[in-house]
Amino acid sequence: MSSPRSRRLLAGLLAIAPLAVLLALAPVLPPPGAVPARWGVGGDVDRVMSGTALLGTTLTLTVISALTAGLVAGLSRLVTPRWSRVVLAGCAAVGAGAAAVYVLTVLGVRVGGGADAVTAWWALAAFPVAAGWSWLTYAVHGEHRPPLAEVLDTVPELDRVVPVTGAVPGVPWRSDTTSPSLRWVGVFVAAVAVVVVVLLVGSGDGWVPALLLGAPGLALALVVHSLAQVRAEVDAEGLRLRPLRLPVTVLRVRAEDVVGVGVADLDPLAWGGWGLRWLPDRSAYIASGGPGLVVHRRSGRRLAVELTEGALAAAAGRQALRAVAGQALTGESTTS
Questions:
Q1: Angle, nearest 10°, between helix axes 51-74 and 81-112?
Q2: Cα 190–chain centre separation
């Protein structure tokens, strides 16, 4: 089955499958009298619940995810392919994760001889299962690529890429952008991580649990703070966005993938909020709202990058990216 409709239905079946698996395994692995419900910082079970309650909770989650997946897979006229891919992957993650939690918890109780012997690792093992099943559903669904003519209809005529020959001045082009909101979010996350470490050490739990919880928080704070300053660059290969303090690329659009480039006053609410944002039909880096580039891609997706240097920098970036995309149409490379 290779048509988009067939792949969508198959992805829907994969998202529903965890419910069928749970219903098939429940008689073989009946719920025990007690299962762990919560673990303390030291890893010991500090609260239990009945196995019947766990089965009821997992059944509820898998049924809801299966019903949602069935509706999304069937209502192709109401749910766009880009959104159905994400929603079905999410339903697969919820269903597979819930089913895996039940199966692994029951197995843990049987192997350990009781609820108190089940460590948190039994439940945490459900996360790779959920992630793997979600990825499989996402991959099977595939990306919907509308016809080029349909994509071009959404691009303003003045922003469309046209063939360009010869050298074009202004390439390479770059512009730095700073996001105050991301900077403050990074500071807040770091402060929370420090407070958690201090509270755990002060309560006598020791440095090991404190570091296990605090280190990931501090690492996340560092990443968020690094994303507060980024550089947008246009070269012969296209557009890329990278943090100034991290050797990675967070957004990339190749020249041959660009069908249009415009300049717009970017509204954070229209692009998912402040900072680095990803939605099924668009992605963006928004500092605080203002002038920036809007890139139209062959897949129909759009990319927006705010430029705190202002409208003149955005106009120069538009000209540079349209030039390299136009030369990609003719098979030439851009030189300054």
A1: 160
A2: 22
For residue 124, give its domain range: 4-141
Question: Within the chain, where are the H helices?
Answer: 4-25, 51-74, 81-112, 120-124, 126-141, 148-152, 180-202, 207-226, 311-330
Identify whether residues 40 and 92 lie together within a single domain. Answer: yes
- Give the number of other CB atoms < 10 A from CB of residue 166: 10
Categorise residue 201: left if φ over 0, alpha if ψ from -120 to 50, beta otherwise. alpha
d(C-alpha 39, C-alpha 273), whole Å: 35
Distances in Å between the Cα of 336 and the Cα atoms of 173, 235, 325 are: 10, 10, 15
Exposed / middle / buried, residue 96 (Cβ in 10 Å: 0-12, 13-18, 19+)? buried
User: Is residue 272 domain-shared with residue 170, that is, in the same domain?
Assistant: yes
Angle between helix axes 180-202 and 207-226 (nearest 10 degrees) is 180
Whether the full predicted model's pTM is greater than 0.85, yes or no, is no
- pLDDT tens digit string along 17-69? 999 999 999 899 898 888 888 776 566 777 888 889 989 999 999 999 999 99
| 265 and 129 assigned to the same domain | no
Q: How far is it, in rounded angstroms, from Cα 323 to Cα 328?
A: 9
234 and 299 assigned to the same domain: yes
Block mean pLDDT (10 aa), the chain, length 336: 80 94 91 81 73 91 94 82 90 94 90 80 88 95 82 87 73 86 84 80 65 78 85 91 86 91 90 84 87 91 90 91 87 50
Residue 204 lies inside a defined structural domain of this protein = yes
In terms of domains, do 83 and 197 share one? no
Angle between helices 51-74 and 4-25 (to 10 degrees): 160
| Same domain, residue pair 77 and 203 | no
User: pLDDT digit string (tens) for 172-210?
Assistant: 899 988 888 788 888 888 888 888 777 767 776 556 666
- The three-point CA angle 303-308-314 to 5° equals 55
d(CA 257, CA 298): 5
Number of domains in the chain: 3
What is the spatial distance between Cα 67 and Cα 42, in angstroms, rounded to a whole number? 38
